[in-house]
Design a protein that fits this description.
The complex is a heterodimer of chains A (about 110) and B (about 575).
Chain A: E1 2-9, E2 12-19, E3 23-27, E4 36-42, H1 46-54, E5 62-68, E6 75-79, E7 82-86, H2 88-91, E8 94-99
Antiparallel strand pairs in A: 1-2, 2-3, 3-8, 4-5, 4-8, 5-6, 6-7
Chain B: E1 2-7, H1 13-21, E2 38-44, E3 47-53, H2 65-75, E4 82-88, H3 92-103, E5 109-114, H4 116-121, E6 124-126, H5 128-135, E7 139-141, H6 150-155, H7 170-184, E8 185-187, H8 194-201, H9 205-253, H10 259-264, H11 284-310, H12 313-319, H13 321-326, H14 334-342, H15 344-350, H16 357-370, H17 374-383, H18 389-413, E9 422-425, H19 433-468, H20 470-485, H21 493-498, H22 503-508, H23 517-530, H24 534-573
Parallel strand pairs in B: 1-3, 1-4, 4-5, 5-7
Antiparallel strand pairs in B: 2-3, 6-8
Helix pairs in contact in B: 3-7, 9-11, 11-17, 11-19, 14-15, 15-24, 16-18, 16-24, 18-23, 23-24
The chains are: A mainly beta (about 110), B alpha/beta (about 575).
Chain lengths: ~110, ~575
């Protein structure tokens, strides 16, 4: 079952979709503050991926969005207890599978 | 044999370097403090060996100029050289990525597991023996700021060895890292400390922006309070009460006037020495750097040091990221700007943390044009301030407007996009008194070493220019621009010429020229904009290359004329 979900995020509408048993894939930019998820995809070239990897943002890592600055500012995430600020355009190219708080991640 | 310190940004390489060699280097709590390398020497057995502090890097694939410097240092390593890989114990996984890449280079290595105390506080335990066994090189826990573990590190340098591992693909490497981390590290969850709560608050937009506003306002207040206090209660009484009578005696000894008298003591104003107007080597030449500028330099660097060591600057970078994008930069460019408010030279060097040439060009040009250094600001506050605070506000207000408009324009006309912010935000640390005062001391000594010789040279040059009449020739040449467009007397040329040497002395030279408040305001602003001082110019040339430097210089000179003319029109229309 494919269920489209619409989220308002500032001025843009972001469509997230839920596949089968409830995984919700969204970009880091459209996650809500406080939400956690697993990094599942990087939409970018090797250079982009390497820069993120070097800072500890890698596939299959748990990532928590701390918040977004006002007016399409950078996104702040927590990964392994480290805080990292990521420009919005980059954040839109990092795809995360959101985990519900109660199911946690495994 | 050389020892090369390598590691991720902001793990404490510079502090370890200082501990090993005794060489003082600037260390702070934000990524990108070290953008160049520093050499020092340490005793190892009965030999003295060279130690090199390299800029931090996350990987061996550079993304900015500072990282390229680190990689060049590594590429130059010869047989027998040793790498000390400094890693952050609170973030083992990410740091090990560089460690394994370094091991693949087959250079003898020792690992310093730094920030060991922080890891303990964060509930992280690392099995050092196991880690040493897995990496097959010595691993020494250290707390560089307190010196813990440094002697063990030095003692174990001779055990440095090569781990014969094969080059890995990125995925294989991360798999290895995962294995190592699960075997050596365990974590216990703990509650937020006060500092951590403050960390969160200063990053939330709702609380972060007011906090930033309060921090910046407080800093201005405190810098002025300390600066004015030192001048009013210590330096002025010393110079007026003790030093002036001494100089009057010398003046009498030299006959009260004449060429040598004017060079050493300067012109007497109504029979007295006026420290801001006499312009002799021993009067104004010492009064300006010591009694007008040093107090502000002290106050500014004290506050900057506190902010740096606390770890506030990266948070400011996040908060201003939006604004900086409009200027073709990203948030991290606030660091060079703030350092530039102290002195352009470290400010310009720190622009190496920016990724592209375009960004560096914009950042450096903005720094050279619209960011006055503390020495210059102190003189503007001191001299222009005599006519009222609103004139000081006009100078700094105009510079801020130029900063925004010029950045905005360069961003529009230059090809290319500004890259996005990707910045690690360090934990807050309570600043420690000893490193803080060492850093302050270094910066003050650095200021005096630069300021006094150039100040004296500037005054000498000015006296010679006046005595030989050379100034009249240049003044006539530039009179159409300076007098007709900017409404300034042609004698202002002398300040523009000495401004190449130092900006503070140049602003000082406006004092004896009997300018009106309006003229002084315009002249001070033009002096800030038209060209950097020689020290900053050399850095600008080195960082940009000759072609971009010429472009940047054309912008400066063009803007100086434009700004002077526009200010003259507006201020005249407002009858200020």
């Amino acid at each position: 079952m494919l269920e489209w979900k619409e989220r308002k995020d500032g001025r843009e509408k972001i469509f997230a979709f839920r596949l089968g048993e409830g995984e919700l894939k969204v970009s880091l930019a459209s996650m809500k503050a406080g939400e956690s998820g697993i990094v599942v995809e990087f939409l970018g070239g090797r250079g982009f991926v390497n820069r993120l990897n070097a800072l500890g943002i890698r596939l299959c890592k748990k990532i928590t969005k701390v918040n977004t600055m006002l007016m399409r500012g950078p996104v702040i995430v927590d990964i392994d207890g480290m805080k990292i600020a990521i420009g919005r355009g980059m954040a839109q190219r990092i795809i995360v599978e959101v985990v519900d708080e109660d199911t946690a991640y495994g | 044999m050389k020892i090369l310190l390598m590691g991720n940004p902001n793990v404490g390489k510079s502090v370890i370097f200082s501990r090993l060699t005794g060489v003082k280097v600037i260390a702070s709590n934000y990524p990108g403090t070290t953008v160049s390398f520093t050499r020092g020497y340490m005793r190892l057995g009965d030999k003295m060996v060279e130690v090199i502090d390299a800029p931090g890097t996350y990987t061996l694939e550079p993304t900015c100029k500072a990282e390229e410097v680190a990689l060049q240092m590594l590429a130059q390593a010869e047989a027998g050289d040793v790498v000390i890989n400094v890693i952050d114990a609170t973030n083992l996984e990410r740091n090990l990525n560089l460690t394994l890449q370094l091991l693949e280079r087959h250079i003898p290595m020792v690992v310093a597991l730094n920030l060991w105390d922080d890891a303990k506080h964060k509930g992280i335990t690392i099995d050092v023996e196991k880690l040493e066994e897995l990496l097959n090189v010595p691993v020494v826990p250290t707390v560089a700021v307190s010196g813990e573990g440094i002697s063990t590190l030095a003692r174990r340098m001779k055990e440095a060895r090569i781990n014969e591992i094969e080059p890995h693909t990125t995925d294989e490497r991360w798999a290895d890292i995962g294995n190592i981390v699960t075997q050596v590290q365990s974590m216990v969850h703990r509650h937020h400390t006060f500092l951590e709560t403050l960390e969160d608050l200063s990053l939330l937009p709702i609380t972060g922006l007011p906090i930033a506003a309060v921090v910046i306002w407080l800093i201005f207040k405190i810098v002025r309070f300390i600066g004015e206090g030192l001048i009013g209660y210590i330096f002025d009484p010393l110079f007026e009460g003790l030093y002036a009578p001494l100089m009057m005696q010398l003046s009498a000894l030299l006959g009260g006037s004449g060429f040598w008298h004017d060079i050493v003591i300067g012109k007497l104003i109504e029979g007295e020495i006026d420290f801001t107007q006499s312009f002799g080597l021993l009067t104004t030449g010492l009064y300006v750097p010591l009694a007008m500028v040093l107090p502000y330099v002290f106050a500014f660097y004290l506050m900057l040091g506190l902010l740096e060591d606390f770890g506030y600057l990266p948070r400011l970078a996040v908060l201003v990221d939006n604004l900086m994008h409009k200027l073709g930069l990203h948030g991290q460019a606030i660091v060079p700007t703030i350092l530039g408010l102290g002195c352009s030279v470290p400010g310009m060097l720190s622009a190496r943390i920016l990724e592209t040439r375009r960004e560096r060009f914009i950042a450096l040009t903005l720094l050279a044009v619209a960011v006055p250094c503390t020495a210059q600001s102190a003189m503007i506050i001191g001299l222009v301030g005599e006519h009222g605070g609103k004139y000081v506000a006009i100078v700094f207000g105009t510079l801020s407007i130029i900063w925004v408009l010029l950045g905005f324009t360069l961003n529009k006309i230059m090809r290319g996009l500004s890259p996005e912010l990707l910045l690690e935000i360090p934990s807050y640390h309570l600043p420690r008194i000893v490193p803080l005062s060492k850093k302050l001391w270094m910066r003050l000594v650095g200021f005096l070493k630069d300021a006094i010789p150039f100040m004296l040279l500037g005054i000498l040059l000015m006296n010679i220019l006046f005595a030989t009449g050379a100034i009249d020739v240049v003044a006539k040449l530039l009179a159409p621009v300076i007098t007709n467009l900017m409404g300034l007397p042609a004698s202002v040329v002398v300040a523009l010429i000495t401004g190449f040497l130092r900006k503070d002395v140049a602003v000082g030279m406006l004092a004896p020229l009997d300018l009106t408040a309006k003229q002084l305001t315009i002249a001070s602003t033009v002096l800030a904009v038209y060209f950097p001082c020689i020290a900053a110019f050399v850095v600008l040339l080195k960082e940009l290359g000759i072609k971009d430097m010429l472009k940047s210089a054309a912008i400066m000179l063009g803007l100086a004329v434009l700004v002077g003319t526009v200010m003259n029109l507006i201020l005249s229309a407002l009858h200020l």
